[in-house]
Amino acid sequence: MRKDNNACRDLLFGFAIGDALGVPVEFESRDYLTINPVSDMISGGSHNQPLGTFSDDSSLTFCLADAICTSKEQLNLEDIAKKIIEWSENGYWAVNGKKFDIGISTENFVHNVLRGMPLLESGGSDFYDNGNGSLMRIAPLLFYLKDIKNINERFIWTKKVSSITHGHPISIIACFYYLEYLREIYYCEIDKFEAYKNLQIKLSPLLNQSIETSEFIPLFSRLLQDNIWQLDASKIKSDGFVISTLEASIWAFLTTNSYEESVLKAINLGDDTDTIGAITGSLSGLFYGFDSIPNEWVNKLLMKNEIEDLAQRLFNWLK
């Protein structure tokens, strides 16, 4: 484990700033961003939001972090669900208390729960429910799972937290890969390429031995078998399909050498820029540390004091 300062701050700020950088250009094409690349945090754009606004990605990530802070013996899935609904209905953890975007599967989950459907039956489990909606909110689970040595138990918890909104094995595998990569680069204190190779050794046998997941392993072959950083950008998709988002984020992280370079490279891939920027930002924030994030971006981020407080509460919970 790293012996530096608050890793929760590294991750949460890294995530939110990547998100806020990507919000104004969400849905813009790669061709457009090649000509008009993002180089700084701006206002307006796709959602006409104020400077420093983060999206549902960060709001839902903060909801999970908040739920972890209040957990005692065990993380309460109903508490997570209540916070998601509070965000959707009342703008909890949204900038200015106003939600301006929500994914289809997450919206369906909210409607299902409010209609009285059981919690673990309310999330989507069809192949077409594999948007990136659970991937984009699951990073704080890294800290909840910190002392769980059994990888199978970590998978079970990942499945539970993802399945609230996204219960298909593809979404669960993507979340599990992401969390295990975060775990490698933080807890094992190793090179990011070594961490990538470690995952290939650890995860492939585990996922192949399960009937639930083995069918879908070929879809993850570029991460579990190949060296994804060697691919040209033209081979990297940046849409909202959960595997595309995961691959683009890992690729941007591995093909750059700083927080700033990684998130800008991720965002300028186009399309789902806020989510890919956020996930790349979480990896780079954790790996390079909070001090690697440009001060001007931190200062422009809205609700930075609230995020700082949440990071400190989560850090205190870790102790």
How does this structure look, described?
- It contains 16 helices and no strands.
- The protein has helices spanning 7-22, 30-35, 56-69, 77-90, 104-114, 141-144, 151-163, 169-187, 192-208, 211-214, 221-224, 242-254, 259-267, 273-288, 295-300, 304-318.
- Helix 1 packs antiparallel against helix 3 and helix 13 (259-267) packs antiparallel against helix 14 (273-288).
- The two termini are 13 Å apart.
Helix-strand makeup class: mainly alpha
Number of strands: 0
Shape: globular
Report how far the terminal alpha carbons are from each other. 13 Å
The mean pLDDT is 94
Major sheet summary line: none
Give the low-pLDDT segments: none
Order of helices and strands: HHHHHHHHHHHHHHHH
Count of DSSP H/I helices: 16
Report the sheet-strand fraction. Answer: under 5%
Helix content: 55-70%
Radius of gyration: 18 Å
